[in-house]
């Protein structure tokens, strides 16, 4: 049970089919909320407001410390070695509802990739795509 507790507190989780399903579910929920906000009854009663955006939540912006191409910040330096070069769920809240995942290279550099099918054929879980990602993020691909 101690191992499960450690996994729960670890900010790094492998990007799995379940992760992709959860992202797609959050995107669908977000679209549903936007649709309910744009009901005809509300637009008729709020003609005075015009097209002002609703200010329910503050506008999220990407975290500059977790930008693609940068090294992991010191607070996240304890990256597990077994996840190096493998797809990990995105750490940045800005990308929480976007189809992306992160790969951390051996030199602790962040690389962000799309979770959509590459070339309309290769899913993020395809072995060819995973091997290509591993080679791409390796700091010295010709020195194995």
TrEMBL record:
Biased composition (Basic and acidic residues): 29-41, 52-70
Positions of region (Disordered): 29-83
Protein name: Uncharacterized protein
Taxonomic source organism: Patella caerulea
Origin organism lineage: Eukaryota, Metazoa, Spiralia, Lophotrochozoa, Mollusca
């Amino acid at each position: 049970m101690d191992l499960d507790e450690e996994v729960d507190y670890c900010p790094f989780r492998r990007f799995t089919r379940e992760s992709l399903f959860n992202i797609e579910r959050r995107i669908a929920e977000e679209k549903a909320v936007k649709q309910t906000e744009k009901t005809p009854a509300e637009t008729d009663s709020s003609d005075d407001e015009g097209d002002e955006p609703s200010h329910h939540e503050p506008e999220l912006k990407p975290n500059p410390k977790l930008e693609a191409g940068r090294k992991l910040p010191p607070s996240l330096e304890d990256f597990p070695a077994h996840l190096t070069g493998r797809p990990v769920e995105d750490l940045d809240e800005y990308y929480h509802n976007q189809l992306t995942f992160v790969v951390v290279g051996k030199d602790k550099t962040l690389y962000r990739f799309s979770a959509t099918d590459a070339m309309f054929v290769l899913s993020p879980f395809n072995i060819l795509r995973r091997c290509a990602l591993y080679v791409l993020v390796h700091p010295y691909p010709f020195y194995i």
